[in-house]
Every structure is written in structure tokens, then in C-alpha cells.
What we know:
- Helices cover 43% and strands 26% of the residues.
- With 467 residues, the protein is of the alpha+beta class.
Amino acid sequence: MRSRFLYCLILLVILLAVACSLGGEDEAAPAATVAAAAADASVEVTTTAMMSRSVEDLAEAEEAAADGESALDSSVTARLPVATPADLGRDVIYRGTISVQALDVEAAAREAVSIVQGLGGIVFGQQVSSSPEPESQLTFKVMPTDFLPVLESLSGVGELVDKKITADDVTERIVDFRSRISTAEASVLRLRDLLQEAPDLENVALIERELVQRETDLETLRGRLRTLTDAVSLATIDMTIFQLYEPVPDTGIDVAAWVSDSDEDPCLGNDALIASPDDDAYFCVQVENTGEVALTDVEVSSAALRLRPQDQRSFQLVAGSFDRIEPGELLSAVMHVAIREGRIAGRVATRGGIEVGFEVTGTPVPDDGVPMDTVTGFSFAWVVVDEEEGPPSFIGAVQTGYRGMVRALGYVVAIIGLLIPFVPAVVVIGGFYWWFRRLIRGRRSARSTPADSSPNRPQHPPDAPSG
């Protein structure tokens, strides 16, 4: 600035020297001309300086753009003012709703309150519930200028679920209320003046009723205006915090069972086996971990084979381990069972065979080491033993005779049980039959008594006593 002023001063001195050297030709020139020339020179110098500065700025911007930056755009953008509804003379009601999920609902609510209070807002309402699931509902009031920053900060309290912003321009409504209030105030003042000038009591009562009505309408308008202005002066944010549950990894188990009469590779057997009364059966159980976490403490049990979960030593491992099965891995184990006299583990396998079921359980354990709920899988295999034809043995004959006797005795008991309900009827019928026979005999004896005692019948002397 000083250089420009000095430059202008030197140029003015030069112009005065030139004017003096003209020897009177320009003596008549007014001082205004000289001042105008100096002003023009100053403007020219200022314009030249500004043009040169603009060229320098443009060169710097082009150089910054060549380096991947846009200094010109950033400087222009930084100088642009941010227009708000208040700057534009508009009255806007801001309202926002936001929903987030958090692992700790109470901690997230405390953090949200701290954020709002740190930016000058207030907590207008809060409701916390723990049933059926933890949930917190909060209402905040903030300045319109802090509305968007607060809303953005609240979005980071948890995992954002939903966010909504509404803006209601109530400028015309506020202007209308203010106009109606002014009109109502003027009307109230006029009625008060008329009340003072009322000539009689009847007019006083009439004017008072109208004045009360006008004052009531005026207060109603003022209340509605206050409600609108309060809503404009403070933005509202409704926030809901839900419980966030960590995703539970998938768990699963797949069990398959086969049976074979050979120990070469029982896992290539079938799901059914036809064996002789004294044969061998080899059961293969395969367990696949179909979940996303490892299975530990794998146990196999079978009620048909009297196999308990702790009897894992009865199996011979082919692949994998009972201690741990990683996701996607297989456990293969083989168990040998002897068939003796058509029985498997004491159970008769003849007469249609026996179903051998295997139940496999495992405990999923994720990376955090906390065991999850036990998973269970089932599979079945059938074993049918053919009965050999031939003469029965002594024990077999005894068993057959015993079974026949028990069956005959069962029939006898069944017949007795069938006849017992008829015993009362048989007794009644027998008693009636006995009574009826006695009655017939009595009548017969009554008929024969008069004929024997008639006078025409000769009387036999009593037997003489023996001599």
C-alpha cells in the first residue's frame, strides 16, 4: 500500500514538473484537472496492481492444480457464506428422528446425553425399558445451528438403523398470527375505549361480553404464536436406542451310519445288513461339522448296543478326533459287535431284525472360548439275522414247551375271565330252576294224597311183630 502511494506521489510530481515546463500554456489549467489526472493515475496504478495480483493468484492456482490440488476452488468455496433459513428471513421448524443399536443400551444413552449437553442442548425427555428387550427413548432440544452436528454425532453412538430429518417452513403462519394479533389488539383497545364511554348499563354489559371474547381470542393467538416461535427457536431430536445382539455363528452336525460284515472298510457298507446267527457286524459312524465353529467333546451313544457316551474306547478311529472337529472336517470311527445266537448286545435280531441307532453330541466353541448350546445328530442302521432250519435243541424244545404252556394257560385265564360276568345270571337261573322243580313235586304229592286215604281202599294190617 505504501509503495502504491509513493508511486502515485512520484507520478504527481512528474506531472507538475511537466506542467511547469510548458511555460504558461497550462497555467490556466485548473487544479481540478491535475487532481483528476492524479486520480486517474492512481486508479490506473491500482487496476494494474490488481491485475498483476490476479495474474499471480491465477498462476499460483494453476501451479497448485498441476500438483493435484485446487487452491482456487477451495479459496472460492471458503469465502462463500453458508446460507441458513434465519439468514434468508425464514422461520423453519427442524425435527429429526434417529434410531441406533448398541450392545449396552444404558451406556449408549449416557453417551448420547453427554453429546447433546456438550453442545448446549437439553434433555427434554427419557424413557428406559428392559422388557421384553432393553430399549431407551430420548428427546433432545438443541439450537437450529447445532441441529445437524448433534444429529451426526448421535449417529456414532451405535450402529445406525434409521435417520430422518424434516423441516417445516412456518414463516407465513407466523406472519399471519402476528397480523391477526395486531388486529385483535387494536380491536381490544377500541372496545376498552367504548366501555369507558358507554352511556348505560346495558351497553356496558354488551361491550364487556364482546371485550372478554376478543381478549380470549387474542390470548389464544398469542399462545399459538409462542408455540410456533418456541418450535423455531429449538430443534427437536427424537432418538431410540435398541439392543444390538452379536451375530451367533451357525452350528450344525451331520451323522451317517453304515454296517458291514467285513472289517476291510466298514464305511463303504450299507445301511442294512443280513447276517447269520453267529456272525460279526462292523458299524461305521461318520460325523461332519457343518457349522462355523469347532465342535469339542464329541460323544457317541447307542441304546441298541448299550453304548454309553463315555464308552468311546469301543470305537477305532479312522479319521479325526473325538476331542475336536474343525468346521468342514469329518470324524470316522468303527465299532465291532459280535452276533451270537441271533442276538446283538443281548437283543434278538431275528423276527424282522433290530434297528441300531447312534446319537452323536458335540459342544460348539467359538473363538472367544465360551461354549455354546450342544448340537445333536442321529443316524440308524438295520441288522437282520436269518434263522437256520434244523432240529430244535433241548433248550429250544423246553423253551417252546414253556411258551406253549404259557399260551394255553393264557387261553384258560382268558376264558375264565370271559365267563365270570355270566356267573350271577347262571346262579339266578339255577335258583329259579330249583324252585320250579320243588313246586312241581309239591303239586304232585298233593294230588296223590286223597287217593291213598279213600274208604274203599283196603286197609292193610300193620305188620305183626316178629315172633
